[in-house]
């Protein structure tokens, strides 16, 4: 969807993270560096004063063209724990209403010396577009673009898997749900394969399964839930967009739960120590029942906590690269 | 409305304030402790740097399911003066729209390591429900639940009365208006009685007076304004919800003002040094005329100022109890 | 529009800035002081930690009755760079909906010890009204009132002109567009004349040109764009409110651009080193084409950056005057 040549534009010449747009094109080493860095930030949430001064005096703008309390809030908290100043901009209701283009919005906020933009947009490629046009002193973090990518969600999921399973190299991970429309699934598949997970399985009704996905991502395709999660170490349930229910792509909620909803009974097919994940918010009784959602094997709330540490890692790495650039410019001028 | 056994759940085993949900069940000593603590915070607003570091690094989330600029703003300012980080979450328009339950919202924000929730909700019992399900490290402050309780409003009113009258033990206090639907009146009656006010009077049209309120709260009931405020030391006017005007419970605005609106002429029935209060925002010409609202005996704006000091007191007491808990857990692990 | 006697109410007895309401009545010395002060703040945006502690512990409330992401954001960033706490109040949707008057809103926020109000309102004179009724410890900054005044916009434009042209005393400045409805134009004309610009030209269709403007402001009137910008040093394009297009005051967008839109071809009439300005957001293809907007002579994004420095200057000057007042009160009490 996004041209190949642009994928690597998130790294600077030294291979450091400048933007965080997609998992595509990132090395295993870099993904592990993000996970390790996030590990160091987990403790900050338990401190009496939940703050580190890494981004003090920096301005981070949340540009959410699609509303999302959960994702915006975790980015806001991550930024505040890094001691940054946060601007929440609900663009849909103001500037765009006056007819301003996305590029004008970017240029104007750059002119206000905003250091980082966290962007969510319904159109695939928005974060890439902004990174391509951003001034060198600005970083873009993709918080979800259309059906394309949601890389911080994927990384917090990887972080959660590593905390529970230790090692990626012998895992079976199943992803269940609306693969077709899911930017989360796309980013998860890329991250799992990059980190060396040998067995990634995709489970969806035929109407929600993209064509040729096996070759594209090196995954295995299933249409039956019990078969797909057999002996899996990790089962990731995707959120169903209820608005698709009436679109002929999906059966009724009842029917969907009957075929693809996770229950304790069904979960017996997976390994006894299976880890159950969901990006939230859950539709209880559609993707899974409450017994599973609130059960011992569910790590759904841990995913939320881990999201802050992972976002702190990504944001501080991008800002750190900015500082390096600023120093080297300073030195070459000296 | 809220079962008795839950009322005391706002205190920890040592009797310290863990949550602040209702006046019910709180001792006179604890209410006086809140008032004394608030006294210490009044000076902060007059400092050049209006801040104390008591809650530095803590995250306080405003969860307002009903909008209220005034109450939300005073809580936000109180939190910022305590050096906390504040999250403003307008839940109605986001998470709930995606079908998330209240409990899921609570769990998710807890997972983000929010330390305190300030909650306003149209349903009675919401704050209690959240406190009952909250993790031990989290405090809930009730900013108004349905017709049930608005305890910080009652405490700021008590604070204002004490500042003007010195002592509660010989006062006559009249509360005028829509007692039936008022969480403010309910919390005020409880606080006044707990603090030892001997004469609490309730004045309302028959359609807005709850049954058996005399026995329930130990108050005296009046239907005539002049009679009710005779020789009163304090007159508290309640806000009329204009939307009730067309509901057959209330006469027209004109008629209401004619019967229950406070004027200088009417106020002569009260003591010459009577104090006039209102929780705001005032409907001028309905609950009272502007001469009274802006007159010498009105302390309505002082109530607003005092609201910040009282909220700082309640918030810092709850957070202090959290810190004690964290320390004792630390010690028992050491 | 605003009575003469009130214009000077923005200065205290010593001639210091207490409020910032309008350019009218301000001396050349004071305008230059603002520009010089802003010059000192330009560097703050380039520091690693973009903060100075001048307003630490102060509370600045953004009271926007008209929404404006750009202006509100630059005021918010200016306040945060001065280390103030910022309250964003969207008044239209809350307090006023409950029937509260503007004066009650002011009184209530004053009671919360807010130190400064940044006010935007559709009615001319709102900021003056608030300043007239504000308590002595509070400052009002006008962020745009009706068709009357937008003084911080004018000052950031003056700042931008001085940075590019050095000196005001021999400049030709042309202002193009809907002069009739523009608070920006009104403030710009006053500022340019006060700062000694000898040749200020106003270019507009007859339907959008106020009567007797030549005498009132000492400007020259043109109805032809090319003629009006001939040999100009600076051309300021005003934003067209698209909603006026259908009101018979304006021709179609196409027709407007044909007659008054700035193009590279047209710009050849001005001086070769002409500076092109616009308060933003631009309607590309109406006020100017993209070649001009993004061209070498456009300083539109610099205006945005300069807006923060100029707002920091105005805000810190008003707060500084407050501090002086507080000290002298303290001394007289000692």
TrEMBL record, chains A, B, C:
GO molecular function: amino acid binding; aspartate carbamoyltransferase activity
Signal peptide segment: none
Catalyzed reactions: carbamoyl phosphate + L-aspartate = N-carbamoyl-L-aspartate + phosphate + H(+)
InterPro entries given in the database record: Asp/Orn_carbamoyltranf_P-bd (IPR006132), Asp/Orn_carbamoylTrfase (IPR006130), Asp/Orn_carbamoylTrfase_sf (IPR036901), Asp_carbamoyltransf (IPR002082), Asp_carbamoyltransf_Asp/Orn-bd (IPR006131)
Residues bound to L-aspartate: 98, 183, 239
Domain (Aspartate/ornithine carbamoyltransferase carbamoyl-P binding) ranges: 18-162
Protein keywords: Pyrimidine biosynthesis, Transferase
Biological processes, Gene Ontology terms: 'de novo' pyrimidine nucleobase biosynthetic process; 'de novo' UMP biosynthetic process; amino acid metabolic process
Chain sites annotated for binding carbamoyl phosphate: 70-71, 120, 150, 153, 280-281
Enzyme class name: transferase
GO cellular component, one term: cytosol
Annotated ranges, domain Aspartate/ornithine carbamoyltransferase Asp/Orn-binding: 171-317
Pfam family, one: OTCace_N
Family stated for the protein in its record: Belongs to the aspartate/ornithine carbamoyltransferase superfamily. ATCase family.
Quaternary structure note: Heterododecamer (2C3:3R2) of six catalytic PyrB chains organized as two trimers (C3), and six regulatory PyrI chains organized as three dimers (R2).
Known role: Catalyzes the condensation of carbamoyl phosphate and aspartate to form carbamoyl aspartate and inorganic phosphate, the committed step in the de novo pyrimidine nucleotide biosynthesis pathway.
Name listed for the protein in its UniProt record: Aspartate carbamoyltransferase
Species assigned in the record: Thiorhodococcus minor
Phylogenetic classification of the source organism: Bacteria, Pseudomonadati, Pseudomonadota, Gammaproteobacteria, Chromatiales
